[in-house]
Automatic annotation (TrEMBL):
<dbReference type="InterPro" id="IPR027417">
    <property type="entry name" value="P-loop_NTPase"/>
</dbReference>
<dbReference type="InterPro" id="IPR045528">
    <property type="entry name" value="DO-GTPase2"/>
</dbReference>
<dbReference type="Pfam" id="PF19993">
    <property type="entry name" value="DO-GTPase2"/>
</dbReference>
<feature type="domain" description="Double-GTPase 2">
    <location>
        <begin position="80"/>
        <end position="306"/>
    </location>
</feature>
<protein>
    <recommendedName>
        <fullName>Double-GTPase 2 domain-containing protein</fullName>
    </recommendedName>
</protein>
């Protein structure tokens, strides 16, 4: 390989480094060895340094584990959502459906700008596609052995501001156990990190006359268990998402199911608001398999709630009543 010729033919001279001629010529251009035409020096191939490329970290793009979420939260302002619900209620399908909506373009007034869990999302999404060669789209069950994982979405508002969402997914069996075990509740790390906790209510089980009574009791018990054990922090937004609205609406009872669901949700909201929870309830349909005519229900509004601008913190000084200093009493007089 050819390398650039040195500026001075005197190999002991450091002029190239410190600008001082070894023979004392000042200016250095006066030196006979300086800047004379020499051929480029041929460096034998065996003396050349082997080019060793530095290892490049490759983003796995798999779902984030708890430690990864903590690391992401150090880098960005992430809003964390916990999806709480028993097995087969539709937690993982909801995730796949949100990602699927962004694959088609802007959704809920937001544009997809990135994700650190693309591969995990794509894997979920593939089951919902015809290429999976399934008769109908079905998401594989989340196993109890699967660790708690988080799916990340970076979404941009019209003005360019980016909102980061991390949505937790874990197996429904764990939540079923948590309903009756405070020890398990203490292990639900996603609740400690969550800005918003969503309780998923299975609209299909609610539409079934056989399951309804036991199921509604268990569902209430779940919110009670988490609330009474202090797992729902003050200031955390809580929402009830009744899933599979296509089934609730089209099952035998038709309108009566929806009526029952709405009354049940309203009762829950009122009872838990009295206990101090900031709770609301909403219908959703993430995969209208039973009636395609129903389409996606409530997902756009849900994403808008999850990404809504946060109110600015109250910074005005608060009046101090019965303050000892006259100066502090001034504010109370206003
Ligand atoms: N008809 C209908 N089926 C749905 C809907 N959402 C989910 N499902 C179906 O409900 C079943 C369970 O959905 P999952 O998303 O796997 O439920 P999960 O809560 O993640 O369940 P676990 O992983 O067991 O905790 C799947 O067969 C879904 O296709 C919906 O909106 N409508
Ligand atoms: Mg699942």
């Amino acid at each position: 390989m050819n390398v650039a010729a040195p500026i001075c033919s005197d190999t002991a001279c450091q002029v190239q480094v410190d600008g001082v001629c070894r023979l004392g010529n000042d200016p250095v251009e006066g030196c006979p060895h300086y800047a004379i035409e020499t051929d480029e020096i041929e460096v034998p191939a065996e003396e050349q340094e082997p080019r060793v490329a530095q290892p490049v970290p490759i983003w796995s793009s798999e779902a984030l584990l708890l430690d990864d979420l903590v690391a992401l939260k150090r880098r960005r302002q992430v809003r964390t959502i916990a999806l709480v619900g028993e097995q087969k209620v539709g937690k993982t399908t909801l995730l796949a459906s949100i990602y699927g909506a962004y694959c088609k373009g802007p959704f809920a007034d937001l544009t997809f700008v990135g994700s650190e869990t693309l591969l995990a999302f794509a894997r979920l999404q593939s089951f919902a596609l015809v290429s999976s060669e399934r008769g109908s789209p079905t998401i594989p069950r989340t196993s109890r052995r699967d660790p708690l994982s988080f799916f990340h979405l970076a979404l941009a508002r019209a003005g360019g501001e980016v909102v980061d969402l991390a949505i937790a997914d874990r197996s429904g069996e764990t939540y079923t156990t948590a309903r009756t075990s405070t020890d398990v509740i203490a292990t639900l790390a996603e609740l400690r990190h969550a800005d918003r906790v969503c309780f998923l209510l299975d609209g299909a089980r609610l539409a079934s006359m056989d399951n309804r009574t036991a199921y509604t009791r268990h569902f209430r018990q779940m919110i009670n268990a988490l609330n009474d054990s202090g797992a729902l922090a003050a200031g955390q937004d809580v929402e009830i998402l009744s899933t599979k609205f296509d089934i609730t609406r089209t099952a035998d009872q038709d309108e009566k199911n929806v009526e029952f669901l709405d009354e049940y949700q309203a009762r829950l909201v009122s009872d838990f608001q009295k206990k101090g929870l900031a709770i609301s309830s909403h219908h959703i349909c993430a995969l209208p398999k039973a009636d395609r005519g129903v389409g996606l229900v409530g997902l756009d509004k849900m994403v808008q709630r999850w990404t809504a601008r946060r109110p600015l913190p109250e910074v005005a000084p608060q009046p101090v009543h019965n303050a000892t200093r006259q100066f502090d009493r001034l504010l109370a007089k206003l």
